[in-house]
Amino acid sequence: RRIYNKGIKLLCDYFKFSKTNLVTALDLSFTLVPVINASGRLDDASFVVSLFNGNESKEIVDELIRINEKRKSLTNEAFELVKLDYNEKIYVCFIDNISEGLLGIISGKILNSTKKPTFVFTKTNDLIKGSGRSLENFDLHENIKNMDLDFNSFGGHKRAVGLSFTSMEEFNKFKKLVQNFYVPNPITYFITFNYSFYDAYKTISSLEPIGEGIKIPYFYINGNICDIRIINEKHTSFRMLVNGKMERFIYYNCVLEAGNYDLLFELKKNDYGIQAQVYKAQLKE
User: Fold this and answer.
1) CA 65/CA 51 separation, integer angstroms
2) pLDDT tens digit sequence for 148-204
């Protein structure tokens, strides 16, 4: 639990991971690791090597944060360019002039929003390079490895692959052939919520580290939302009465109006306490 590496400690201090708060697997996955990975995706990974070697330079941490912010901006810009055919079972997208280091991130972003296996490709160094992401119910690697195609490169595992072609002709064949795969419908499990946020989060935390083996559970609840605040014209913060207490919820990239909703959500902890992050909201007539 104690951080001995001075460079990593400086990065943790930037995100205000104090000595009294447990750094969870989610903190590592969604806060620290993206910053560490960003330099290799867009720039020179020697920044991270220097940090791992115990370099306490604040300038290095600032540069890592700057590169990660650039990575997020470029990812969002590329995501806006994606055009999907919602009749397809598997999405295969091609985006011009993007860093190949962003392909997997964009694939994952589309996968999270659509719940369909996704590939994102771009052209770089005369190759058509792509990265694919999938859900647990569809083995990406197993389905692709025996395709009768002229891959320039291919590798990965069940939920993530990287591949490349030397010609657009092979890419177009790939795009057509993957639609013949059988893709099972994803199943979402959720628990009817009848706890306090504190008790539920305490139980979840006891299962750490949370990750691929033990996932964050989705909870279901129904009720009227109130105290609605729209953030940056695209996110909704609101409150709901839960077991006699007004609890705070956040729904990213969706604007909600007052009403009675069925909600699927997961619990997250931030500087303001325990908060529900909404996964899906359905207004009840």
Assistant:
1) 13
2) 999 999 999 999 999 999 999 999 999 999 999 998 876 666 677 778 888 888 888
The DSSP H or E segment spanning 285 is none
Q: SS3 of 97, please?
A: coil
For Cα atoms 162, 112, 160, give the angle at the middle one, nearest 5 degrees: 20
Q: Is the pLDDT of residue 256 over 90?
A: yes
CA-CA distance, 205 to 45, in Å (whole number)?
A: 33
Q: pTM (2 decimals)?
A: 0.71
Q: How many residues appear in the chain? A: 285
Of residues 191 and 135, more confidence is placed in 135
Nearest to residue 139, comparing CAs of 184, 94, 176, 170? Answer: 184
What distance in Å separates the CA atoms of residue 17 and residue 10, rounded to the nearest whole number? 10
Q: Give the model confidence (pLDDT) of 14-47 as tens digits.
A: 887 755 456 677 777 878 888 888 888 887 788 7
* Residue where the block lists tokens 């395709």: 147
Q: Which residue has the tokens 């052939």?
A: 177
Cis peptide preceding 184, ω within 30 of 0: no
Taking phi over 0 as left and psi of -120 to 50 as alpha, with beta for the rest, 253 belongs to left
Q: Note the pLDDT tens digit of each residue in 72-90.
A: 999 988 888 888 888 888 9
**Residues 19, 78 contacting (CB under 8 angstroms):** no
- Neighbour tally for 182: CB within 10 Å: 7
**Cα gap 27→43, rounded to integer Å:** 23
Q: For 267, list phi and psi in degrees, rounded to 5.
A: -95, 135
User: For residues 58 and 55, what is the distance between their CA atoms, to the nearest angstrom?
Assistant: 9
Residue at 211: amino acid letter:
G
